[in-house]
Amino acid sequence: MTSPSHADHPGASLGLPADGPGSIAQLGRRILGLVIDYAAATIIATAFFGYDQFALPEEAGLTLFAPMMVFAVLHIVFIPMLGGSPGHRIAGLRLVRADGAWTGIWRPIVRTILLVVVIPAVVWDADRRGLHDRVAGTVLVRR
C-alpha cells in the first residue's frame, strides 16, 4: 500500500486541481446549493400551486410533488444557461462536463432525473462524483 501523495486528491483522475477554482466541490457547498435550490423551488411551487398543510397525501394531488418538479425545472433550465442552478451559483459552484466543456442540453436532464431519485446522488466515487454525475459525464466544481 502506498502513502497518499498530493496527486491523490479528489478530482486528480479528472485532471482537476486539489483546491481553488476548478477543484471538486466540497460537501458543505453542495449542501448549501441544494438547500437554496429546494427552498426556492418550495417558495415558487407554493406561490403557483398553493399549499394545504392539513391535506392528506391522496387529497394534495399536484401540490405534493410541485416543489420537486419546480426543483427539476430550475436545474434543467439554469444548468445549460448559467453553468449551474441558482443554488450552485450562490454557493460558488458550477457544473461542467468531465472534460471541462459546456454541459449541453441532455446532460442536465439526465443528471436532474437521477438527482430527484436521490439514491444516485448519495453514491459517490473516489473523485466525490455522485452516480448522477458519472452517468451524465459531469462534475460539480468550484468557480
TrEMBL record:
Its main location: membrane. The chain crosses the membrane at residues 31-51, 63-83, 104-124. This is RDD family protein. InterPro entries: Pra-immunoreactive (IPR051791), RDD (IPR010432), UCP021697 (IPR016795). It is a multi-pass membrane protein. It is found in: Cell membrane. One of its GO terms (cellular component) is plasma membrane. Residues 25-137 form the RDD domain. PANTHER family: PROLINE-RICH ANTIGEN HOMOLOG, PROLINE-RICH ANTIGEN HOMOLOG-RELATED. Keywords: Cell membrane, Membrane, Transmembrane, Transmembrane helix. It comes from the Bacteria. It comes from Microbacterium oryzae. Signal peptide: none annotated.
